[in-house]
Design goal:
two-stranded antiparallel ribbon, 17 strands, 0% helix, mainly beta, flat
Length: 292
Amino acid sequence: MRNYFLLFSVFFILESYSQEVVDKDSLWVTRGNIAVLLNQTGFSDWVGGGTNNFSGTIKFDYEWELKNNGWNWLTNVESAFGLAKYKNAPFARKIDDRILIQSILGREFTKNLSFSAFFNFTSQIGNGFKYKKDDENNEIRELTTKIFSPSYFQLGSGFLWKKDEKLWINYSPLASRLIIVSKRFTENLLENETYFGVAKDKSSRYELGANLTFHSEGVLLENVNYRQDLKLFSNYLENASNIDLDYLAQIEIDVNPLLSTQLIFQLIYDDNAISRLQVREVFGVGVQLKLN
Protein backbone atom coordinates (compact mmCIF):
# COMPACT_ATOMS: atom_id res chain seq x y z
CA MET A 1 0.00 0.00 0.00
CA ARG A 2 1.28 3.39 -0.88
CA ASN A 3 1.53 5.67 2.18
CA TYR A 4 1.49 9.39 1.82
CA PHE A 5 0.75 12.41 3.90
CA LEU A 6 -0.15 16.02 3.39
CA LEU A 7 0.42 18.68 5.99
CA PHE A 8 -0.34 22.19 4.86
CA SER A 9 -0.58 25.18 7.13
CA VAL A 10 -0.52 28.73 5.88
CA PHE A 11 -1.27 32.04 7.53
CA PHE A 12 -2.05 34.78 5.11
CA ILE A 13 -2.31 38.39 6.24
CA LEU A 14 -3.33 40.81 3.55
CA GLU A 15 -3.19 44.43 4.61
CA SER A 16 -5.31 45.64 1.73
CA TYR A 17 -5.41 49.16 3.19
CA SER A 18 -2.91 50.64 5.61
CA GLN A 19 -2.05 54.30 5.49
CA GLU A 20 -1.66 57.53 7.38
CA VAL A 21 -2.99 60.63 5.68
CA VAL A 22 -1.70 64.07 6.66
CA ASP A 23 -3.10 67.00 4.68
CA LYS A 24 -1.31 70.27 5.44
CA ASP A 25 -4.48 72.16 4.52
CA SER A 26 -6.66 70.03 6.82
CA LEU A 27 -6.99 69.82 10.59
CA TRP A 28 -7.57 66.07 10.37
CA VAL A 29 -5.07 63.20 10.53
CA THR A 30 -6.31 59.71 9.65
CA ARG A 31 -4.86 56.22 9.50
CA GLY A 32 -6.23 52.70 9.20
CA ASN A 33 -6.06 49.22 7.75
CA ILE A 34 -8.08 46.22 6.67
CA ALA A 35 -6.49 42.82 7.25
CA VAL A 36 -7.49 39.27 6.28
CA LEU A 37 -6.00 36.29 8.11
CA LEU A 38 -6.51 32.79 6.64
CA ASN A 39 -5.35 29.49 8.08
CA GLN A 40 -5.70 26.00 6.59
CA THR A 41 -4.37 22.69 7.92
CA GLY A 42 -4.83 19.37 6.10
CA PHE A 43 -3.83 15.78 6.94
CA SER A 44 -3.89 12.49 5.04
CA ASP A 45 -2.68 9.26 6.71
CA TRP A 46 -0.83 11.39 9.24
CA VAL A 47 0.35 9.00 11.98
CA GLY A 48 0.62 11.74 14.58
CA GLY A 49 -3.07 12.55 14.18
CA GLY A 50 -4.82 15.81 13.47
CA THR A 51 -8.05 17.29 12.16
CA ASN A 52 -8.43 19.14 8.88
CA ASN A 53 -9.55 22.68 9.52
CA PHE A 54 -9.90 26.07 7.91
CA SER A 55 -10.25 29.44 9.59
CA GLY A 56 -10.48 33.04 8.48
CA THR A 57 -10.57 36.42 10.20
CA ILE A 58 -11.18 39.89 8.82
CA LYS A 59 -10.08 42.97 10.79
CA PHE A 60 -10.84 46.64 10.31
CA ASP A 61 -9.18 49.53 12.18
CA TYR A 62 -9.49 53.23 11.48
CA GLU A 63 -8.62 56.39 13.40
CA TRP A 64 -9.42 60.09 13.02
CA GLU A 65 -7.73 62.89 14.94
CA LEU A 66 -8.50 66.61 14.98
CA LYS A 67 -6.20 69.25 16.49
CA ASN A 68 -7.11 72.93 16.61
CA ASN A 69 -6.37 75.78 19.05
CA GLY A 70 -5.82 73.56 22.09
CA TRP A 71 -8.64 71.17 21.21
CA ASN A 72 -7.92 67.51 20.48
CA TRP A 73 -10.53 65.03 19.29
CA LEU A 74 -9.52 61.40 18.74
CA THR A 75 -11.95 58.76 17.43
CA ASN A 76 -11.14 55.19 16.51
CA VAL A 77 -13.21 52.27 15.21
CA GLU A 78 -12.02 48.68 15.50
CA SER A 79 -13.75 45.45 14.50
CA ALA A 80 -12.83 41.82 13.88
CA PHE A 81 -14.74 38.67 13.02
CA GLY A 82 -13.36 35.18 12.48
CA LEU A 83 -14.65 31.61 12.09
CA ALA A 84 -13.00 28.18 12.16
CA LYS A 85 -14.43 25.03 10.55
CA TYR A 86 -13.20 21.57 11.51
CA LYS A 87 -13.70 18.46 9.37
CA ASN A 88 -16.84 16.47 10.29
CA ALA A 89 -17.87 19.11 12.82
CA PRO A 90 -21.47 20.23 12.21
CA PHE A 91 -20.86 23.82 13.24
CA ALA A 92 -18.28 26.51 12.53
CA ARG A 93 -16.91 28.17 15.66
CA LYS A 94 -16.03 31.78 16.32
CA ILE A 95 -12.38 32.61 16.91
CA ASP A 96 -12.73 36.40 17.06
CA ASP A 97 -15.65 38.80 17.33
CA ARG A 98 -15.53 42.38 18.55
CA ILE A 99 -16.66 45.92 17.83
CA LEU A 100 -15.14 49.01 19.43
CA ILE A 101 -16.03 52.66 18.89
CA GLN A 102 -14.14 55.11 21.09
CA SER A 103 -14.05 58.91 21.06
CA ILE A 104 -12.16 61.26 23.38
CA LEU A 105 -12.44 65.07 23.27
CA GLY A 106 -9.86 67.12 25.16
CA ARG A 107 -9.32 70.84 25.84
CA GLU A 108 -5.75 71.60 26.85
CA PHE A 109 -5.20 73.76 29.95
CA THR A 110 -1.50 72.97 30.55
CA LYS A 111 1.14 71.26 28.44
CA ASN A 112 0.13 67.62 27.89
CA LEU A 113 -2.91 67.89 30.21
CA SER A 114 -6.51 68.51 29.17
CA PHE A 115 -10.04 68.45 30.46
CA SER A 116 -11.73 65.58 28.63
CA ALA A 117 -14.98 63.88 27.77
CA PHE A 118 -15.16 60.37 26.36
CA PHE A 119 -17.59 57.91 24.77
CA ASN A 120 -17.01 54.18 24.39
CA PHE A 121 -19.08 51.42 22.80
CA THR A 122 -18.12 47.73 22.72
CA SER A 123 -20.09 44.75 21.50
CA GLN A 124 -20.01 41.81 19.09
CA ILE A 125 -21.25 40.98 15.60
CA GLY A 126 -22.27 37.31 15.49
CA ASN A 127 -24.05 34.77 17.65
CA GLY A 128 -22.11 33.00 20.38
CA PHE A 129 -22.70 29.41 21.46
CA LYS A 130 -21.80 26.93 24.19
CA TYR A 131 -20.99 23.53 22.70
CA LYS A 132 -21.64 20.13 24.27
CA LYS A 133 -22.57 16.51 23.43
CA ASP A 134 -26.03 14.95 23.58
CA ASP A 135 -26.84 11.43 24.81
CA GLU A 136 -25.87 10.00 21.41
CA ASN A 137 -22.50 11.82 21.44
CA ASN A 138 -23.61 14.29 18.76
CA GLU A 139 -22.40 17.85 19.03
CA ILE A 140 -25.10 20.34 19.93
CA ARG A 141 -24.94 24.00 20.78
CA GLU A 142 -26.78 26.48 22.98
CA LEU A 143 -27.14 30.16 22.10
CA THR A 144 -25.43 32.31 24.73
CA THR A 145 -24.92 35.69 23.01
CA LYS A 146 -26.07 37.42 19.82
CA ILE A 147 -25.45 40.56 17.84
CA PHE A 148 -25.27 43.58 20.20
CA SER A 149 -26.15 41.36 23.18
CA PRO A 150 -24.36 42.25 25.33
CA SER A 151 -23.49 45.85 24.44
CA TYR A 152 -21.55 48.23 26.67
CA PHE A 153 -21.95 52.01 26.49
CA GLN A 154 -19.72 54.31 28.55
CA LEU A 155 -19.81 58.09 28.86
CA GLY A 156 -17.77 60.24 31.22
CA SER A 157 -15.61 63.28 31.87
CA GLY A 158 -12.23 63.79 33.48
CA PHE A 159 -8.64 64.45 32.49
CA LEU A 160 -6.48 63.49 29.52
CA TRP A 161 -2.69 63.32 29.77
CA LYS A 162 -1.18 63.07 26.31
CA LYS A 163 2.50 63.05 25.44
CA ASP A 164 1.74 62.50 21.75
CA GLU A 165 -0.48 60.36 19.52
CA LYS A 166 1.35 57.22 20.65
CA LEU A 167 1.18 57.64 24.42
CA TRP A 168 -1.79 58.90 26.42
CA ILE A 169 -3.93 58.22 29.50
CA ASN A 170 -7.54 59.28 30.03
CA TYR A 171 -8.97 59.17 33.56
CA SER A 172 -12.65 59.78 34.29
CA PRO A 173 -13.53 59.84 38.02
CA LEU A 174 -17.19 60.05 37.02
CA ALA A 175 -18.33 57.70 34.26
CA SER A 176 -21.66 56.07 33.43
CA ARG A 177 -21.86 52.56 31.98
CA LEU A 178 -24.97 50.99 30.49
CA ILE A 179 -25.09 47.25 29.72
CA ILE A 180 -27.80 46.24 27.25
CA VAL A 181 -28.81 42.63 26.50
CA SER A 182 -31.57 40.79 24.69
CA LYS A 183 -34.46 39.96 27.02
CA ARG A 184 -34.59 36.42 25.63
CA PHE A 185 -31.53 35.65 27.78
CA THR A 186 -33.02 37.01 31.03
CA GLU A 187 -36.64 35.88 30.91
CA ASN A 188 -35.82 32.33 32.11
CA LEU A 189 -33.28 33.26 34.78
CA LEU A 190 -33.75 32.29 38.40
CA GLU A 191 -34.38 35.07 40.88
CA ASN A 192 -30.75 35.15 42.06
CA GLU A 193 -29.21 34.74 38.59
CA THR A 194 -27.95 37.45 36.24
CA TYR A 195 -26.88 37.60 32.61
CA PHE A 196 -23.83 39.87 32.23
CA GLY A 197 -25.04 41.53 35.42
CA VAL A 198 -28.60 42.08 34.12
CA ALA A 199 -31.34 40.73 36.39
CA LYS A 200 -34.28 38.47 35.53
CA ASP A 201 -36.77 39.94 33.01
CA LYS A 202 -34.61 43.04 32.53
CA SER A 203 -32.80 44.19 29.39
CA SER A 204 -30.29 46.67 30.84
CA ARG A 205 -28.10 47.47 33.83
CA TYR A 206 -26.82 50.92 34.82
CA GLU A 207 -23.50 51.46 36.58
CA LEU A 208 -21.81 54.63 37.85
CA GLY A 209 -18.09 54.54 38.47
CA ALA A 210 -14.59 55.51 37.37
CA ASN A 211 -12.86 54.70 34.09
CA LEU A 212 -9.20 54.67 33.10
CA THR A 213 -8.00 54.16 29.52
CA PHE A 214 -4.31 53.80 28.63
CA HIS A 215 -2.83 53.65 25.11
CA SER A 216 0.76 53.10 24.07
CA GLU A 217 2.42 52.19 20.78
CA GLY A 218 5.91 52.33 19.38
CA VAL A 219 8.98 50.42 18.21
CA LEU A 220 10.58 47.73 20.38
CA LEU A 221 13.39 46.83 17.96
CA GLU A 222 14.07 47.43 14.30
CA ASN A 223 11.01 46.22 12.35
CA VAL A 224 9.28 45.21 15.61
CA ASN A 225 6.25 47.38 16.46
CA TYR A 226 3.90 47.12 19.41
CA ARG A 227 0.56 48.52 20.51
CA GLN A 228 -1.23 48.09 23.82
CA ASP A 229 -4.55 49.28 25.23
CA LEU A 230 -5.74 48.98 28.82
CA LYS A 231 -9.26 49.76 30.06
CA LEU A 232 -10.27 49.68 33.74
CA PHE A 233 -13.71 50.33 35.25
CA SER A 234 -14.85 50.43 38.88
CA ASN A 235 -18.56 50.48 39.74
CA TYR A 236 -19.24 52.81 42.69
CA LEU A 237 -22.73 51.38 43.14
CA GLU A 238 -21.62 47.79 43.77
CA ASN A 239 -18.27 46.28 44.82
CA ALA A 240 -16.16 49.34 43.95
CA SER A 241 -12.95 47.42 44.71
CA ASN A 242 -13.84 44.80 42.09
CA ILE A 243 -12.29 46.35 38.95
CA ASP A 244 -13.19 45.23 35.42
CA LEU A 245 -10.15 44.87 33.16
CA ASP A 246 -9.64 44.69 29.40
CA TYR A 247 -6.03 44.55 28.19
CA LEU A 248 -5.04 44.08 24.55
CA ALA A 249 -1.44 43.85 23.30
CA GLN A 250 -0.36 43.49 19.66
CA ILE A 251 3.18 42.90 18.40
CA GLU A 252 4.03 42.94 14.70
CA ILE A 253 7.40 41.87 13.29
CA ASP A 254 8.14 42.97 9.73
CA VAL A 255 10.53 40.32 8.39
CA ASN A 256 10.63 42.10 5.04
CA PRO A 257 8.24 44.34 3.06
CA LEU A 258 6.00 41.32 2.31
CA LEU A 259 6.44 38.90 5.23
CA SER A 260 5.31 39.64 8.79
CA THR A 261 4.53 37.97 12.08
CA GLN A 262 1.70 39.15 14.31
CA LEU A 263 0.96 38.26 17.94
CA ILE A 264 -2.25 39.35 19.69
CA PHE A 265 -2.71 38.81 23.42
CA GLN A 266 -5.84 39.82 25.35
CA LEU A 267 -6.90 39.58 28.99
CA ILE A 268 -10.45 40.31 30.22
CA TYR A 269 -11.83 40.21 33.72
CA ASP A 270 -15.52 40.98 34.19
CA ASP A 271 -17.28 39.01 36.92
CA ASN A 272 -20.64 39.95 35.43
CA ALA A 273 -19.72 37.60 32.58
CA ILE A 274 -17.58 35.00 34.41
CA SER A 275 -15.65 35.15 37.67
CA ARG A 276 -12.38 34.12 36.07
CA LEU A 277 -9.71 35.76 33.97
CA GLN A 278 -10.40 35.35 30.24
CA VAL A 279 -7.33 34.87 28.02
CA ARG A 280 -7.09 35.03 24.22
CA GLU A 281 -3.99 34.60 22.07
CA VAL A 282 -3.64 34.79 18.28
CA PHE A 283 -0.41 34.13 16.37
CA GLY A 284 -0.03 34.58 12.61
CA VAL A 285 2.79 34.42 10.10
CA GLY A 286 2.27 35.37 6.51
CA VAL A 287 2.26 37.88 3.71
CA GLN A 288 1.26 41.50 4.06
CA LEU A 289 0.89 44.47 1.74
CA LYS A 290 1.17 47.96 3.19
CA LEU A 291 0.24 51.10 1.29
CA ASN A 292 1.76 54.14 2.99
